[in-house]
Design brief:
The protein is mostly helical and 234 residues long. The protein has 11 helices and no strands.
């Protein structure tokens, strides 16, 4: 368990940083299109759903490509210079295949889940400086999940981590931590992943509706509560 602790710790930090970085990037891109009125030209030639999903998938693909290149460079450099390091980081880079697979699937699902949310939040404001007002609550949830996940790595078989591993807001890190450091059945992993995928699809559909509703509304930021009220009247 202790040999797995450090790479699990590192992977949680990595997926947290990727979600924040690329989520904000997508939200900023959406807001900039509203701010400079580019969206008014785009909606005349493309469906709003295509614009929203295309933007989210493009941001996610960029994240996977760039992080993948960084990982490959780091791992390749270490393999080449392993003897010079005396195998110092062997335990960190020697990650079991089941943990890597779990991290890949759940990390991708969690990234898509939050990037969809960030994209929708970006459509609720007209200025890039207002993004924090719109997405602040989302970032707060991510931060809470992040700190709880790190604090519970020594107790991954506890009730709290078991609950977090089934919630879509936290399963992207909690489940692979349980796989790496605890005892979890394949059935639990499958159920958690299905919940994450269904939730991601639902958030994507809801996000596209918020995007369509808010993309041509300028002025003061639209609160999430008002956004939901407006959707009910559509």
């Amino acid at each position: 368990m202790m040999s797995n602790y450090w790479y699990c710790y590192a992977l949680i930090i990595i997926v947290f940083m990727v979600i924040i970085l690329y989520g904000v990037m997508v939200a900023t891109s959406v807001t900039q299109e509203k701010s400079n009125r580019t969206i008014e030209l785009l909606v005349t030639s493309a469906d709003t759903n295509s614009l929203f999903f295309g933007k989210v998938l493009a941001g996610t693909s960029a994240a996977l490509l760039q992080v993948g290149i960084i990982f490959a460079v780091i791992l390749g450099s270490y393999k080449i210079n392993r003897d010079s390091w005396g195998g110092l980081f062997d335990k960190i880079f020697n990650i079991p295949s089941d943990v890597l697979i779990t991290f890949a699937f759940f990390g991708l699902g969690g990234l898509l889940f939050y990037v969809f949310i960030y994209g929708a939040m970006g459509a609720l404001v007209s200025k890039t400086e207002d993004i924090n007002k719109s997405a602040g609550s989302v970032q707060f949830v991510i931060m809470i999940v992040y700190f709880i996940g790190l604090s519970q790595l020594n107790n991954v078989d506890g009730i709290l981590m078991k609950v977090l591993s089934f919630l879509p807001i936290s399963s992207y890190s909690a489940m692979f931590a349980r796989v790496a450091l605890g005892n979890v059945s394949f059935a639990e992993i499958a159920v958690s992943f299905v919940i994450l995928i269904v939730s991601t699809i639902a958030v994507g559909i809801l996000g596209s509706k918020i995007y369509r509703m808010g993309m041509l509304r300028y002025g003061n930021p639209i609160t999430l509560r008002n956004a939901f009220k407006n959707l009910k009247h559509e």
